[in-house]
Amino acid sequence: MEKTTATKRIYSGKIINVRVDDVELQDGSMSKREVVEHPGAVAILAVTDNREAFFVRQYRKPIEKELLEIPAGKLDEGESPQSCAARELAEEVGMAADELRQISFHYSSPGFASEKMYVFLATGLKKVDVARPEGEFLEAFRLPLAEAVSMARNGDIEDSKTLVALLLAAGIFNL
Amino acid sequence: MEKTTATKRIYSGKIINVRVDDVELQDGSMSKREVVEHPGAVAILAVTDNREAFFVRQYRKPIEKELLEIPAGKLDEGESPQSCAARELAEEVGMAADELRQISFHYSSPGFASEKMYVFLATGLKKVDVARPEGEFLEAFRLPLAEAVSMARNGDIEDSKTLVALLLAAGIFNL
């Protein structure tokens, strides 16, 4: 346990808030903790009946490059992870799923951020027509799941949630 | 590409910096991007000759709970990922490795943070005597690698870098 003795609010933004806590450590000494507050997010590995998976490629400002990822997005206020997963799947790749099963819950960067990541496996896919939200630019496409799992094992996937999803899928689909 | 037209510095801290960029999107419209700058980090899956892996349990302020993780730490200025991995392995679990092989490079939260994560597999382990840095409180222990891989597959590992490391190790060690 690290008891908070004071909190300084640094920034309240659109997606993140930042604060610095004064904390009392196990030995009674004092330290500071920089904390990024995040609303949480979902990621969806959507697999078709013929074992293809959906991916998106989009520009990520923090790393100044395009990244290959599975569909994902942050939770709206009061939104359940399950509903968020269904919404993002429709918005980003135009699909609805008969089954949406949570296969992982994890923290992406627990050293400095509160972000929780819920990863879903979506199967029984059907096309739906949903408009992409304004200001979202991404390219959506499919890859054979087996090929994507090989990419994950060979170091060709550089996004943590996508790595976790594909490596778990390898076990689920015996790849 | 998202062209930065202005940058506002919000916070310069010990581990993170925060800025907000005004960016021009693909269609010429303007938006804002909140960016957490991070120095990058390493994580080490250290496996003994009899297939046990080292873990640490430590309190993580952003999520207000203890988390089971592999040894990890952030890069010091000018430090290579390889040197950082050797240093953290010694500091956190008191081991040196004959072989330290990078098995993943990924971004932990590319939507809002620049953090790069380098994951190493450490083998040929020998005990070393190194003092733990002040203010670091963690419990170190070993688990059979096969058991840890099962935990990762069953949802009992909630740290992203640890999940990636264990699921990649499953392929490497045929587990």
Characterise this structure.
- The structure is a homodimer of 175-residue chains.
- Chain A has 175 residues and is an alpha+beta fold.
- The first copy, chain A, folds into two domains: 3-37; 42-105 and 114-172, Nucleoside Triphosphate Pyrophosphohydrolase, CATH 3.90.79.
- Chain A has helices at 81-93, 145-153, 160-172; strands spanning 3-12, 17-24, 30-37, 41-46, 52-60, 65-69, 72-74, 95-107, 116-127, 139-144.
- In chain A, the strands form three sheets. In chain A, strands 7-4-9-8 form a four-stranded mixed β-sheet, with helices on both faces.
- In chain A, a hairpin with a 5-residue loop joins strand 2 and strand 3 (30-37).
